[in-house]
Amino acid sequence: MSKAGNDNWKTPLGVYERAIAEVIKTREQLQTELQSLRDIQASYKNLKSELQAAKAEIQTLQSQFQACQKELQETKAELEATKLELQDTDKQYEDRITEAKETADIAHSEAKAAYSQVESVKTEIENGTIVAQKALMLRGRDENYWMRFHSVDSVNHDVFQIWKIDDTWYDTIRVKAAKLLRARDDKHWIKFYRVDSKNRDVFAMWRSDKTWHINIQLK
Fold first, then answer.
1. What's this model's pTM, rounded to 2 decimal places?
2. C-alpha–C-alpha distance, residues 114 and 112, integer Å
3. Which tens digit of pLDDT belongs to each residue from 101-160?
4. CA 58 vs CA 35, 63, 106, 209: distances in Å
5. Pairwise CA distance, residues 19 & 9, whole Å
């Protein structure tokens, strides 16, 4: 029986059954390989999608990097411009400080020279070198204020004002007494002229040629 069973494939039925078994086995193998192929295709699609996503992400990162690089360049340019502007501003401040210092030095020198001039005039007045009747300046409230000729106005009046030793002028003065007061030069002097009809003292401009001129103005 066993031998007959082993030889069963030689019969038409055995051959048929064996062929069916081979077909089934081959089909199973094909299905297995087909499933493997499908798995490979699915993996390939996933990998392709991941590659595309990675590529898109890389492009996005490149765009962001380029934008960041451009922004850094613009910021660098702004910083350079600001640096130059600050340097220019520093130079302007230094120039202004230097100019202000020079102006202050000049003002100090002028004030010192004016003070020396006043001291010299005081000394000359005290020792008699300058006669009070022909003084260039008359002492005011103290040694810092002096009455002196200032200018000639538009109607040819000699204008006298208070001069301070810091070289500033003030037009609030009042003359009480003096025989002669020097005007624009050594040829023009203010002097008592006469008493008018209302008993007022009249002062006039007396010139060295002994002529009188009623054209003075006191401020």
1. 0.30
2. 5
3. 888 888 888 878 877 777 776 676 566 554 444 557 777 778 888 888 888 888 888 888
4. 34, 9, 71, 107
5. 10
